[in-house]
């Protein structure tokens, strides 16, 4: 069904789409390539939510030459009047005769209607070329549009023997500077960061994305282009004091507790702080309820927490992916463990996971594992 030219062009469209990875949220990253025969006559990608979609950039690039052309799009062209008119209509009006789509748009406002519009106009439409790659590129958008829950990535850092800190809690500088820059980029790709009160009290982190620490990404992403993730602190007993570093950075903070904060504490919060009261489960924040709420705010969350909270996301089957930075160090058996998990009685009970990427990050190794 697909020619080599089709595969080449969709790969080119995917490469374009990836350029929007850090800037399109909450919109998906989408790329589009327009061809006449073997020749590329237009291309573009979605840069920013509220701005033109990929197809509009590509059609503008092609101009009148788009008549009789083929368009390769990494996501079904939209059918709705949102912040921009429907892309399906744009392709029809430009005289495109064939549209190749990687994957359907799960947005209930679109969901097959874009494809139907194109077909009704007599355009030849084929769907599914490099679909897995296209879905993976927008995994948060795909999951959240379909089931209203955000994609959950658990970030972990450990030694060769799976320890995260010395027995006295000292954990700094286990992984190297390249890994820390990589974590900054990971943060910049997520809609929210979730951590626990214990981590905040112990490390006093700012939990923001810092332009100076983005490494090679600094060249292509300006400081104002960064979309700061919402910083979510789980603080079941409302203990977080107001003199912490994270309050000094002006981007959204969501404090989640199971009891109310004292009024004098609430009055001292800066404007960028909001509060969510959730039921407790065994004295802790109900994580399933938390994710339901976060699904209404963003499409993806990064868990950067200690063994208890990270383990709870895994044990409750709420995590989609683990990103593990492993340092060439051995901390010994008195070191702190990576994840608190219930005892497994047999090998069959172990969480199932697939290694989807493995690479060197400085002197460390980064493993990306898909759960389930
Ligand atoms: C496309 N091409 O490049 C993108 C699409 O807020 P709006 O008006 O920009 O609409 C956002 C929705 O449009 C988004 O949720 C998704 O369904 C679709 N994104 N569609 O045809 C694009 N980015
Ligand atoms: Zn569109």
* H/E element order: HEEHEHEHEHHEEHEHEEHEEEHEHEEEE
Q: Mind telling me the C-alpha Rg? A: 23 Å
Strand percentage lies at 15-25%
Tell me the number of strands: 18
List each distinct ligand once: ligand AOF, zinc ion
Question: Could you explain the architecture of this structure?
Answer:
Helices cover 26% and strands 24% of the residues. It has helices at residues 4-18, 54-62, 87-94, 113-120, 131-137, 139-147, 177-188, 197-203, 263-268, 287-294, 307-315; strands at residues 31-36, 39-45, 70-73, 98-101, 124-127, 151-158, 163-165, 192-196, 230-234, 253-257, 273-277, 280-281, 284-285, 300-303, 321-326, 336-337, 353-361, 364-371. The longest helix has 15 residues, at 4-18. The chain is globular and about 70 Å long. The model has no long low-confidence stretch (mean pLDDT 96). Ligand AOF binds at residues 27-28, 30, 46, 49, 53-55, 75, 77-78, 82-84, 87, 105, 107, 110. Keywords: Hydrolase, Metal-binding, Multifunctional enzyme, NADP, Oxidoreductase, Riboflavin biosynthesis, Zinc. Its cofactor is Zn(2+). Pathway: Cofactor biosynthesis; riboflavin biosynthesis; 5-amino-6-(D-ribitylamino)uracil from GTP: step 3/4; Cofactor biosynthesis; riboflavin biosynthesis; 5-amino-6-(D-ribitylamino)uracil from GTP: step 2/4. Converts 2,5-diamino-6-(ribosylamino)-4(3h)-pyrimidinone 5'-phosphate into 5-amino-6-(ribosylamino)-2,4(1h,3h)-pyrimidinedione 5'-phosphate.
């Amino acid at each position: 069904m697909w020619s080599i030219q089709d595969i080449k062009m969709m790969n080119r469209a995917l490469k374009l789409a990836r350029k929007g990875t850090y800037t399109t949220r909450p919109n998906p990253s989408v790329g589009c390539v327009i061809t006449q025969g073997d020749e590329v006559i237009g291309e573009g990608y979605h840069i920013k939510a509220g701005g033109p979609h990929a197809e509009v950039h590509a059609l503008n690039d092609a101009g009148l030459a788009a008549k009789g052309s083929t368009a390769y799009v990494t996501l079904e062209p939209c059918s709705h009047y949102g912040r921009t008119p429907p892309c399906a209509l744009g392709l029809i009006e430009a005289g495109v005769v064939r549209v190749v789509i990687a994957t359907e748009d799960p947005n209930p406002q679109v969901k097959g209607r874009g494809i139907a519009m194109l077909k009704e106009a007599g355009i030849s439409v084929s769907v599914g070329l490099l679909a897995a790659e296209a879905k993976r590129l927008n995994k948060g958008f795909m999951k959240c549009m379909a089931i209203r829950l955000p994609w959950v990535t658990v970030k972990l850092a450990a030694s060769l023997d799976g320890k995260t800190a010395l027995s006295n809690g000292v954990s700094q500088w286990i992984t190297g500077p390249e890994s820390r820059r990589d974590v900054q980029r990971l943060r910049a790709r997520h809609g929210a960061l979730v951590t626990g009160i214990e981590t905040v009290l112990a490390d006093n982190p700012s939990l923001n994305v810092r332009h100076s620490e983005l490494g090679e990404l600094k060249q292509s992403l300006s400081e104002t282009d960064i979309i700061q993730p919402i910083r979510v602190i789980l603080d079941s007993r409302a203990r977080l004091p107001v003199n912490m570093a994270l309050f000094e950075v002006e981007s959204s903070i969501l404090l989640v507790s199971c009891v109310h904060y004292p009024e004098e504490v609430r009055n001292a919060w800066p404007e960028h702080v909001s509060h969510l009261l959730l039921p407790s489960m065994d004295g802790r924040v109900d994580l399933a309820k938390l994710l339901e709420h976060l699904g209404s705010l963003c499409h993806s969350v990064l868990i950067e927490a200690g063994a208890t909270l990270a383990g709870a996301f895994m044990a409750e089957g709420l995590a989609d992916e683990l990103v593990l930075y492993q340092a060439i160090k051995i901390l010994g058996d008195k070191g702190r463990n990576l994840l608190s998990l219930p005892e497994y009685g047999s090998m069959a009970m172990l969480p199932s996971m697939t290694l989807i990427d493995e690479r060197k990050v400085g002197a460390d190794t980064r493993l990306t594992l898909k759960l389930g």
